[in-house]
Amino acid sequence: MSKLKLKTWQIVTLAVGALIIVTGLFSYQIGLSASRGISGGKAAIITLGIVIAIVGVLGRKTFAAYKAVAIMLLNTILLLVFIEFSLVIIARLSDFLPHQSETVVERDLRYINDGREDLLYYQAQDWSKDYWREYHAAWDGRVLPFEPYVLWRSKPFEGKILNINAEGLRVTPGAECTPDSYTVFTFGGSTMWGTGVPDWGTIPAFLQSALAEQMGRPVCVINYAEQAWVSTQSVIQLMLALRAGNIPDLVIFYDGNNDVFAAYQSSKAGAPQNLSSIAARFEDRPEEPPLIALLSKTRTYKLLQRLVLGEDYKLIPPYEAQGVDANTLAAEVSQTYLGNYEIVQRLSSAYEFDAYFFWQTTLLVDEKQLTEEEQSIKDVAISVYPGYVELFDLTTEHVRSAISQYPDLHDLSGIFRDRSELIFIDPFHVTIEGNQMIASAMLNAIQGR
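The structure assignment produced for this chain is given below.
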């Protein structure tokens, strides 16, 4: 067996390649990088070092090896392009493949989000077309602007029945905000914000009208809720308002789903929603490698996925894929939520306002008698979010077990159990009538205290 003999230039080239590889791997330790991980720049440096090292080893055979690899790679690419093109043609001529290049999960998500407008409930409302037109104008394709500490806020929008003021807050009709007003701050995610209903059909709007009738004085309900916010973001928003000298008489939190869903996504309690996307932007890197993202959108990939896993394959819950136990994660979510309750109660004592927390209900856990449309939405949502129901149920159990220790915490997860009409327009949002029932339950709990 002949020994590998390298010429002087090959040894130098190999050494240079090895030095570049070591520099890329240990750039943080030697002070050339501010991050410990392997960024895109580090990967490029390491790849360059590997290529140079290979040239040093192969010497004059480098070109021949490059030619062979290039031919194989080109043939592979041409074969994949041919397969992809063939699948596009077949999809147009046959019902075997979906006419849109989408996975089962993508199709189901489209059904949940876009199917809301077609519900019988909205077909009977004379305001529904205006609402959905304005909702899409306010949200579709718009990047939410960064907001210090709370991460994002809505952009101002002026419509016929959907309005967002200059501060990014959903407008509460009838609010009389004067120095002598009884002031109420409401916090939560998109359900408190009012997804699916006009300005006058939100939970804060019903609180405004009911309190104005009862108080006999000006009432100012300010809707601080925001799409996809978790309770920690709401607590921070409250702190910012207090710091600015805006002291309310009453504070109402309506949370639960977003806290659980954010943990469901990231396997971490207390994190905001879409943590991986936020981290990728902060770290100036793509959320996933561009090549993988491109390949996952091809028909070839989706056909292989369908053939291997089947049409109705079950996804693994994200937290389970990360090796996180559902009960452990649920306990951590409830601990974070209850910790936020305690922070707000201390703030309420210091600033002399009343504060109440209400644990949210969702279609996936509420015990109401479901309509045919609600059952269809629930079935699809359970398949899209495998393991979510279990995580929400476990978190709710932890919260319920602690309610006796938290006098201003109330569980609304079963609020619709005696109702049979359509209330849920998707897994998490409700109709105008549903919002009115929630607002009424809140006021009953507050005034019965």
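Interim note for the steering committee: The longest strand covers residues 182-188. The chain has two domains: 1-97, 110-447.
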